[in-house]
Structure formats: structure tokens, C-alpha cells
Design brief:
- By secondary structure, the protein is of the alpha/beta class.
- The protein folds into 4 domains: 175 residues, Molybdenum Cofactor Biosythetic Enzyme, Chain A, CATH 3.40.980.10; 54 residues, Molybdopterin biosynthesis moea protein, domain 2 (Alpha-Beta Complex), CATH 3.90.105.10; 166 residues, Molybdopterin biosynthesis moea protein, domain 3 (Molybdopterin biosynthesis moeA protein, domain 3, Beta Complex); 65 residues, Beta-clip.
- It has 8 helices and 29 strands.
- The strands form 7 sheets. Strands 6, 7, 8, 9, 10, 11 and 12 form a 7-stranded mixed sheet that branches.
- It is elongated and about 90 Å long.
- It binds ligand LQZAQKY5 and molybdate ion.
- Ligand LQZAQKY5 binds next to helix 7.
């Protein structure tokens, strides 16, 4: 049984009704989604750190990790980013052969200060710097060859090399700082003593002034492992995606309403240049970004022809797996406009049956459940593309944002502007006029008839012009900009 009055709903009330219905449906169930598909969605759970940041004591500058107050240190090796703390990693610590190459190589300690299989030097407890072997020649293998070689062994039980006071290792930004090192002396502050070994120049000693603790990022100093970094309810932005990745996540569990779109009309062409009598679909392609900017996701899009049975079947099929079905077109009173009759047939409850705004007045909001449990929501967008966009900002976006628990980005923007030039209000309905907004002034851009998106494409917002408006200030509804 459809409950619907014939009276259209005033524009502001219609928005409120959509928000209120969305609030009743909040929260939609949380679902894990890959990081690269999560932008714009709302976190269903607190975001916690699976690893600390930084995950280990790391150098913040390229230079020398030094142990003890100095100002002079003996260089005993080199650590590159990618090495395991306490041992060599994928690019395991040989000198690179540059002019200031390290005096010694890998910092992996194999116990007792022995050379490892590559013949490279290791620090060792009880071993004096003088006992340490000279560095080997630079590794002749090009980086690409190294990358193509067998995967380096990870997780070996290396005993961490501890620097003793007076020792230093050359270190790359991001590389693990050996235990015992107090600070990193950047190259810019370092004076080097070198000796030549054939074509290779080795750094044997480094001198400089550096305060204890400088240029060392201590493990967990930004974020401790297990810390909560963002609360549930936060919107996923590109920065949040990077943060989550850095903390070890591959997916985020988000509350993002699922939307199925039905684009109706025998005349609608889904792609390419429309043929004779055809009209290219200009609403379906808008919906993914439009819904994403309201915290939702289009999970299905189907083109259907005109026909009552077709509409009933498509509504039933689309509704089951989603939270919202958006029907584009068939919202008016023409012989092929079956949306309202189909909703009656499937027992929908119509919440908003037309809105007193131009464009967009045939738009519609209904649900398939009960007042207590509204179930899947149906939003009817008029077929005229600018009317569909007006309906999307009136009913669809407020509904989806409320269902997702997403903030209204427009709330952060100026709510009103002074209208430049004349706008004639409609006798009974609220007009939504495409305007460009600069410096608190709203200038109509034209080209905003119901069938044209040209004005909306030039505009920042719709100026809301109620019946009887005489200016000069108008409320603004900001147009979705996409990208979450
Ligand atoms: N007797 C009345 N007729 C109409 C009224 C009315 O109040 N009384 N309202 C008019 C208004 S306003 C609008 S808006 C449209 C809404 O029509 P529908 O939602 O039923 O949409 P259609 O009739 O299917 O199409 C209207 C128009 O838009 C084109 N269209 C449809 N879908 C798309 C699409 N996906 N992409 C691009 N263009 C589309 C379609 O070809 C038609 O030209 O009703 C008025 N009539
Ligand atoms: O009101 Mo219709 O929705 O103008 O195009």
C-alpha cells in the first residue's frame, strides 16, 4: 500500500525528510574495502596502529650514526634503509663504491665478530676497531641484478650490532640506527678522514658536533603500536589511506551505503554518440562520484526500457542486495513514467512525493520496509539531467550522508551569498539557480534549464531562491565536486 499525498513537499522540508530517513537507517553495516577504494567512506571502527611509527629507531638524516659524545668517531660500517634492525636486509650493507664509501660494510653480527659469507665485516663484542677487516671492493652487481636475484633471507636471528662509544656507521635516512648510537651526524656537519684502497676511497673517521638524540626518530615516537589514531566515524581521505597503509592495513572497515542505479527510458543510449531519436545517458555516469562524495558507493548500474512490468522486476531485483535504489527518469506523469505505479505495486511507502522546487519537482523518496525498519530506500531522480542533479542534492546526498554518518562538506562553506544581478523567483516553487561564487558574491551562470548540465558544470553552487524572494542574499547548496 503506498501512502502518498498529492501535495508536493516544500524544498527545505524534503531535504530534512531525507536526512531524517537516513538517520533512521544509520548505521549501515561495516564492510572491509581495499584501501584504494575507501576514500570518501566513513570508518566503522577506530583506526589503530598495527605497527608503531616509526617501527624501529631510524635515522632522520643521511650521515653517520655516532655513539658517544665525540667529536671524533671511527667508522665501522654502513646501514642502508631496508636492512633489518640489527642485520642486513634486501640491500644488505656493502659499500657502494662512491667517493666517500663506508670504511666497513654490513652490520650483521654473526656472533663473535666473524666475517659473514660475503667476507664483509661485522662488529663484535670484544672486538676492537683495529681488529676489523678492511672493506671489500664495491659490490659490482648492479641494482637491477640484485633486485632480480633470489629473495634475501629475512628474519635471521642476527644479534644486533651495538656501537661502542667512539664508533660510527654511515647511515641512510630511514635506516635502522644501531643500538648504542646516540645521534646522527648529517653529512653536512661531518669532516671525514679517508684512506685510499685501490680505486676505492674509504672513510675511516668522522669528526663533528652533534647533540645527543639529534636526527634519530625513536621507535613509536609518533605512534605507539596499538594506538588509536582516528575514531570510528571519521571520513576516509587520501591522507587517511596513506596513514592506514603506513600502519600496516590493507583494508579499512567502512560504513558505506550501497547504491544500485536504474537508468530508465527506451530512448537512452548508454555510450557513444546517440543515434536518431536517442538521448545519451547523462545521469548514470554522474552517480559514482556523486554518491562517493556523500560517503556511498554505486555497486550496480542497469539500463532498463520503459514498461510497468520491467520497472517492477527491476526494482525488486535491484533492491535486495543494496541500501538504496536510485531510479533515473520515469518520475513524471507521462505514459511511460511507471515509477509511482510500480512502487504502489511493490508496497512501498512514499515519504516525499514531489518537491516544490525547479528544476527537480517530480523527485521522489520512498522505502520498502516499515516505519520502524525502513529497509531499502528508493530515490526517484527526474530524467532531465539538471533536474536529476537538483534532486540529488535535495534528497539523495542528504539521505546517503545521514546513512553513512558522513559530515556535510557544504557545512564548512559560506551558507549564503549576495546575488549579483537579477533573479526572478518562481510563483510557487523554490528555484535552484546555478551560480559561481566568488568573494561572497553569487553570479548566475545561465544554461541551467532542466535538460542542461552546462550551467551546473560552470557553477559552484545552486542559489536557493524561494517564492517571493526579493534579494539580495540567497542560501547556497554547494554542488558536489567529486573525489570524496
Ligand atoms: N504533464 C507533466 N509533464 C511533465 C511534468 C509535469 O509536472 N507534468 N514535469 C516535467 C519535469 S519538470 C520533468 S523534470 C520531467 C521528468 O520526467 P521523467 O522523470 O519522467 O523523465 P523522462 O520523461 O523519462 O525524461 C524526461 C527528459 O529527460 C531525458 N532523460 C531521461 N533520462 C535521461 C538520462 N539518463 N540522461 C539524459 N537525459 C535523460 C528524456 O529523454 C526526456 O527528454 O517531466 C516533465 N514532464
Ligand atoms: O522540475 Mo523539472 O524537474 O524542471 O525539470
Amino acid at each position: 500500500m503506498v501512502r502518498c499525498g498529492n501535495a508536493v513537499t516544500p524544498w527545505a522540508e524534503a531535504r530534512e525528510a531525507a536526512r531524517e530517513l537516513g538517520d533512521r537507517l544509520w548505521p549501515v553495516a561495516g564492510r572491509p574495502v581495499p584501501l584504494d577504494r575507501a576514500v570518501g567512506a566513513v570508518l566503522a571502527q577506530d583506526l589503530t596502529a598495527l605497527v608503531g611509527v616509526p617501527p624501529f629507531d631510524a635515522a632522520a638524516m643521511d650521515g653517520y650514526a655516532v655513539a658517544g659524545p665525540g667529536p671524533e668517531w671511527t667508522v665501522v660500517g654502513r646501514v642502508l634503509a631496508g636492512e633489518e634492525p640489527g642485520g642486513p636486509g634486501p640491500r644488505g650493507g656493502g659499500p657502494s663504491g662512491d667517493a666517500v664509501g663506508a670504511g666497513a660494510a654490513s652490520l650483521r653480527r654473526t656472533g663473535g665478530g666473524a666475517l659473514d659469507g660475503s667476507g664483509r665485516l661485522h662488529g663484535a663484542t670484544g672486538e676492537s676497531p683495529a681488529d676489523r677487516a678492511p672493506a671489500p671492493a664495491p659490490d659490482p652487481a648492479p641494482a637491477s641484478a640484485a633486485a632480480a636475484g633470489p629473495a634475501p633471507e629475512r628474519g635471521f636471528p642476527a644479534e644486533p650490532l651495538a656501537l661502542r662509544p667512539g664508533e660510527a656507521v654511515e647511515i641512510a635516512t630511514g635506516a635502522p640506527v644501531p643500538p648504542g648510537a646516540d645521534s646522527v651526524l648529517p653529512y653536512e656537519l661531518a669532516t671525514l678522514d679517508t684512506t685510499a684502497h685501490g680505486s676505492v676511497t674509504k672513510v675511516t673517521r668522522v669528526t663533528g658536533e652533534i647533540a645527543p638524540g639529534r636526527h634519530v626518530r625513536r621507535a613509536g615516537e609518533d605512534t605507539a603500536p596499538g594506538a588509536t589514531v582516528l575514531p570510528a566515524g571519521s571520513t576516509v581521505t587520501p591522507a587517511v589511506v596513506g596513514l592506514a597503509a603506513g600502519l600496516g592495513h590493507d583494508t579499512l572497515t567502512v560504513r558505506r551505503p550501497r547504491v544500485a542505479a536504474l537508468v530508465t527510458g527506451d530512448e537512452i543510449a548508454a555510450a557513444g554518440r546517440p543515434g536518431a531519436g536517442q538521448v545519451r545517458d547523462a545521469i548514470g555516469p554522474v552517480l559514482p562520484s556523486l554518491t562517493a562524495s556523500a560517503g556511498a558507493e554505486v555497486t550496480a548500474l542497469r539500463y532498463i526500457g520503459d514498461g510497468f512490468d520491467t520497472m517492477v522486476e527491476a526494482l525488486n531485483a535491484a533492491a535486495a542486495p543494496v541500501d538504496v535504489v536510485v531510479v533515473c527518469g520515469a518520475s513524471s506523469k507521462g505514459p511511460a513514467d511507471h515509477l509511482r505505479a510500480a512502487l504502489t505495486r511493490i508496497g512501498a511507502t512514499v515519504v516525499v512525493d514531489g518537491v516544490s522546487c525547479r528544476p527537480g519537482h517530480p523527485q521522489l523518496l520512498a522505502h520498502l520496509g516499515t516505519p520502524e525498519d525502513p529497509g531499502t530506500v528508493v530515490v526517484g531522480l527526474p530524467g532531465n539531467p539538471n533536474a536529476a542533479l537538483a534532486a540529488a542534492v535535495t534528497l539523495l546526498a542528504p539521505l546517503l550522508r545521514a546513512m553513512a554518518g558522513a559530515p556535510d562538506p557544504g557545512a564548512a562553506l559560506p551558507p549564503t551569498a549576495r546575488v549579483k544581478g537579477a533573479i526572478r523567483p518562481h510563483a510557487h516553487d523554490t528555484r535552484l539557480v546555478a551560480v559561481r561564487v566568488t568573494g561572497g558574491q553569487a553570479e548566475p551562470v545561465g544554461h541551467d534549464r532542466p535538460g542542461s548540465l552546462r550551467g551546473a558544470a560552470l557553477a559552484d553552487a545552486y542559489a536557493v531562491i524561494p517564492p517571493g524572494w526579493s534579494g539580495p542574499y540567497a542560501a547556497l547548496v554547494w554542488l558536489p565536486r567529486g573525489g570524496g
